[in-house]
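quick one: zinc ion bound model?
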Amino acid sequence: MLTDLDAAVDALAAVDVAGAEVGQLRVLAVGLEKAAGRLRGIASAMLGEIEDREPEGAAWWWRDALGISGEAAGIAIRRARGLRSLPAVSDAVVDGTLSLDQAGALVPLVGKLDEVELHDSQPALIEGAAARTVDGIGQWVRHLIALNSEPALELEQEEARRRRFLEYRTGPDGVVRGRFALAAEEAEPVLTVLEPLAKRSGDDDPRTAGQRRADALVEVFGGAARWAELPHAGGQRAQISYVISAAWAAGQAGAGPATAAWTGPQTRARLEAELCDARLSRVLLDADGQVVSLESVNDQISTAQRRAVSARDRRCVARGCSRPPAFCDVHHLIARKDGGPTTLDNLVLLCRRHHVVWHQGRLLLRDLDVPWLRKPLDPPMVA
Ligand SMILES: [Zn+2]
Ligand SMILES: [Zn+2]
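yep, here:
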């Protein structure tokens, strides 16, 4: 049988793709994908039968036979086993009505719903699954479980909670990459906070949805770093520290870059945005690393000033932006290093994105919505 199949595959592989017409290729590509799906369904049904007769070591055998990961083999086995309880669904994969992934998404129902009822509801399940994406089926299945069995949903959630994780690591480029999985109820507050923050901030917002979510995450943590009762480290509340040279601070050319503890070198615009709304201390070390002096080097923005600026501006003042005060920096219109004072008429709210854009020189006074600003600023800043 497999010899015939191989011969058929060989014949298809011999098709002159470059010489074929697009219409013909379309028919073939779709047909082959569908056939591949049906073949996977047949293989899965056989896998289920093998596992049923010789459950011991089936996952290991499947892993080694295909050279796939143990995790992937385990998933295939669990799906095959589940589909044995849903024979009509299994057949629907073989006849091409459902993909194996669509059918697999129905498997969580097995063991959670009454067996006879589940068996009888297969036609409806097939129809519902055929009309949905794999993720959509997953949500639908959770809904069905919740509708029919509260304890089963509880179990499901416990299982999801057990699988929660968050992994990240810092690459040599300083970029932090990671993955995570959160159970539904844990993800809820996270999405409730992130989603509104991840909306486009005005018509000038060129960021992709993924970039906006990433920025929102950073904003939330920026707020936490500034306001939250963070764990103490060495008797001190955690704070973000940067190491900058005197030459860098003075804006001298050729000064080495500023660096942060976790992620290494930082650009000037980003760090200036950070420093614009920070309390700075200068720690002077001698050649042996002994602390020679420690001094506060700027006037801190007071809580009362923050409150006043928030009440006056009510949002990021970049035109078209609606980021609320809790997620804004307080920005010095005339920079501290240019002698700008920490007084109300020199302070405005800017969200982190617009704040950095300002310090990159791409957001100017005329782009801000600051009707209260009467007296013109020093010419250099109006640029
Ligand atoms: Zn600033
Ligand atoms: Zn903004």
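The chain is about 50% helix and 10% strand.
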